[in-house]
Known about the structure:
This protein is α/β, with parallel strands linked by helices. It has helices spanning 34-50, 61-64, 67-74, 114-131; strands at residues 14-17, 56-59, 81-84.
Amino acid sequence: MPGDVTExxxxxxxxxxxxxxDPAWVRSSxxxxxSITEGLPNRLQPAFASVGxxxxxxxxxxxxxxxxxxxxxxxxxGEYEYGTHLHAAFIEPEKKFYDYAGIDSPDFQCNYAPEIExxxxxxxxxxxxxxx
Length: 132
């Protein structure tokens, strides 16, 4: 039909890549990472590949501190991207928790002074660079 235009549809898929949580969205206790070590390589990544989607996995501090999660992420097959996802209470400066089991993410980065938020993001980026 004259005047028909075919548009290219672009869809961005981002996944907050975190440790396992209970139904109330509190971190598992003890802390587990089955969603990363089993779910990503065996379910999500193959599902994305089957439809030609290239996901962006947004990695949290607790995931990047877990060696098995890092190994699973490094071993993913197919196309994907990584980014970071800040849980402000879990990274310096003013880090509030060192054991993440059984807690939620109580702090939002927008509640920090800009210079503290900047340092948290800088430290998160440095952690990412050191792990990947």
